[in-house]
Amino acid sequence: MPFDLFGPTYSLLAKALDLRSQRHAVIASNIANAETPGYKAVSLRFEDELNKIISSRNSLHLVRTNPNHLPYSDIEHVRPVIVQSLSRVTRIDGNTVDLEEELTALSKNQIMYDALAQILKRKFDGLASTIKELK
């Protein structure tokens, strides 16, 4: 398990950015295969798993019994799931990519990624400010 130097918020934001990046790649693959006969569009799901981790953090408080033990970080165990949507309309060539839907998903994902990156930047700015004040 990696050492969580900055606390749970930083690791949560970092994991969320990583998952958003993975979702971007999946959506981009769908868009790239919009004209590929037989291609089945997929999506990347991780919100439910991330929410479970967040809610369990609120109810379960682990205590280190020895200062030499590394802090527990369950955020690393969040694994995205790739799912094929059954509700999509299949074209005559067997392709299920809805280009408009994919472009909308790409835009939404980009907005969420940018927002997370901005939050993480502000966290680091606050940390840098604190360090400068301690000098």
How would you summarize this macromolecular structure in one to three sentences?
This protein is mainly alpha-helical. Helix content is 55%, strand content 6%. It has one domain.
Helix content: 40-55%
Q: Which structural category do the helix and sheet elements fall into? A: mainly alpha
The low-confidence runs, each spanning 5 or more residues with pLDDT under 50, are none
Radius of gyration: 19 Å
Largest sheet: 2 strands, antiparallel
Number of domains: 1
Distance between the termini: 32 Å
The gross shape turns out to be elongated
- Largest beta sheet: strand ordering: 1-2
> What proportion of the residues form beta strands (DSSP E)?
5-15%
Task: Give average pLDDT, whole number.
Answer: 83
Layout of strands and helices, then pairs:
Layout: H1 8-32, E1 42-45, H2 47-59, E2 81-84, H3 99-134
Antiparallel strand pairs: 1-2
Helix pairs in contact: 1-3
Q: Which features does this protein show?
A:
mainly alpha; 6% strand
Explain the overall architecture.
- The protein has 3 helices and 2 strands.
- The protein starts with 7 loop residues before the first helix and ends with a helix.
- It has 135 residues and is mainly α.
- The chain has helices spanning 8-32, 47-59, 99-134, and strands spanning 42-45, 81-84.
- It has one domain.
- Helix content is 55%, strand content 6%.
- A two-stranded antiparallel sheet has the order 1-2.
- The mean pLDDT is 83.
- Helix 1 runs antiparallel to helix 3.
- It is elongated.
